[in-house]
Specification:
212 residues; alpha/beta; Glucose Oxidase, domain 1; nine-stranded mixed β-sheet; 6 helices; 13 strands
């Protein structure tokens, strides 16, 4: 279905495909360098970015951003790379879930990692710190942030898993999703051939090359 009234694919469809597949299939995908890491194994998420500039040592901007969410977003938080405090924990993770936020990437630390994992709320952070924060700086919501050398604007599609964090332009989502699905299908065929006894050299047409 195309044209006016076409149903736009949901970014969540990228999650089972993964960052590695999307990154290979869609060269325009932008890869965060040394990205924040998932709090627990298996955490993965995808959605349009809701960007937040949050002053290190203060988390009012996060509370304001969560309250403004429409649902389906990934919080992308510029915390200045600071790991000296934990501006986000279990209570805020539950607040995110109640607002329909699907996960968070923060260039900083959080707290309550076990409790957040038990909630099933994906969080990608620089570290852990139980030190509290003040609530006096409104920060900036909805302005571009830069994390891992990549500028991320509101609405950019963010995909994060154990391998990486990548972003794509919102307009690229349908084509990027189709390309990633096609690559995943090709890889499934390759794995079937491996299980049947073929080698990667034969499958990739490399068996005639000098491998010495």
């Amino acid at each position: 279905m195309t044209g006016q009234g076409a149903v736009r694919p949901d970014a969540a469809a990228l999650v089972p495909l993964g960052t590695a597949t999307l990154g290979e299939a869609w060269p325009a995908a932008r890869l965060l360098a040394a990205p924040p890491r998932p709090l627990a194994p298996g955490m993965a998420m995808a959605g349009p970015a809701l960007t937040v500039h949050c002053r290190p040592g203060d988390n009012l901007a996060l509370h304001l951003a969560i309250a403004s969410a429409k649902g389906g977003e990934v919080l992308v938080v510029d915390y200045g790379g600071s790991t000296e405090s934990g501006p986000f924990g279990e209570i805020m993770a539950l607040a995110c879930q109640m607002r329909g936020i699907v996960g968070m990437v923060i260039d900083g630390s959080v707290r309550d990692c076990a409790q957040i994992a038990a909630l099933g709320f994906p969080v990608f952070a620089r570290g852990l710190n139980i030190r509290g924060t003040s609530k006096g700086d409104r920060g900036r919501i909805g302005q571009p942030v830069t994390i891992g050398g990549v500028e991320i604007a509101v609405g950019d599609i963010v995909l994060a898993d154990a391998d990486a964090i990548v972003t794509i332009a919102p307009a690229d989502l349908p084509a990027a999703l189709a390309a990633a699905r096609a690559r995943a299908a090709r890889e499934a065929v390759m794995m079937d051939r491996l299980r049947a006894g073929e080698t990667t050299l034969a499958i990739l047409g490399l068996d005639g090359r000098d491998t010495a």
